[in-house]
Amino acid sequence: MTNTGLVDEMVDRLISSNWSDPELAVAHTNSRQRLVAEYLYRVALWVDICELDLIRGEWPFVDLANHLHCEVQTPPAAWEELSSARANISPWDKQLISAALRWAAVADAGYQPVVELPDPFEPLIVFFGRGGGLIWENGMFDIGGSMIVLRDPKYWIDRGGILKELGQEYLDRLDDV
After folding, report:
1. Is the pTM of this model over 0.85?
2. From what superkingdom does this record's organism come (predicted)?
3. 130, 31 Cβ separation under 8 angstroms
């Protein structure tokens, strides 16, 4: 039987997140913008280091597990539980969450990362916990009315990681600025 510890933990975190509080989302706009930028940096780093050939339209919704361990799937029970608790997951959030859950399923299956890099999806999971999902339009992420223009992976690698950590206290300080 496959271990589902990390998948279950991620589902629990997503279910317990407050996605429907616009005041919370606005209060955390600064940290949420940085979390999305950190996600873009991290996933770009994985794409580059693993020399993945992305198909048109796959960036930034990259399913790394599909490229590296396509035989591993997210347990259907995980999606059922998440979908019953979060009925209105947008298509773009669903795509990103699906990739994150599948990445956790790869770890649960016992695969070790091919390289030592930061978890590509952790910034997204933290992002959802700070006030809701993403709005994707015209090639940009809308985070509380502030747009993050989608650029190619090389741009995000050259820019580098921008968050020292992903802890709540640190992110709260960013929002107080």
Report:
1. yes
2. Bacteria
3. yes
